[in-house]
Amino acid sequence: MWKGLILDFNSYQEKSRSTAIYNSKYAVMYPAMGLGGEAGEVLNKVKKLYRDQDGVILDEDRFTLIAELGDCLWYIAQLASDLGIQLDTIAHTNLYKLQDRKERNVIQGSGDDR
User: Which of 15, 47, 75, 101 could form a disulfide with 35 if both were Cys (CB 3.0 to 4.6 A apart)?
Assistant: First the structure.
């Protein structure tokens, strides 16, 4: 249905909002918890690829992961909407942060303020 449609982050966020059917009193909390659950599903599927297939990823596995990653993206989009933040802002801010860390040679390691 959507194959071949070119979307930017903000367009995806806007279009996905029509499927966000949850009580507004659960705004922020509902998509944050959903994101955690979906991220866990991605981890579980990847874990099983290593357990059952020695890490070999087949096309059918990619399709399964596309679906799970899409669910993560949906929850990220809803959480961002509930917070009044556009996905483009998140993407640009993240790229800036990573580029800055790379230029300062601190991209590896741990800690938020490096």
Answer: 75
Measured distance CA(87)–CA(6) in Å, rounded: 16
Name the residue type at position 13. Q
Query: Secondary structure of 10-54 in the HEC alphabet?
Result: HHHHHHHHCCCCCCHHHCCHHHHHHHHHHHHHHHHHHHHHHHHHC
Nearest CA among 34, 73, 38 for reference residue 46: 38
Q: What is the pLDDT of residue 113?
A: 80
Between the two ends of the chain, the Cα-to-Cα distance in Å is 43
Instruction: Look up residue 81 and give its two tokens.
Output: 């909407």
Q: How far is CA 1 from the centre of its chain?
A: 21
102 pLDDT above the threshold of 70: yes
> Per this entry, what is the length of the chain?
114
- Kindly tell me if the per-residue pLDDT of 5 is higher than 90: no
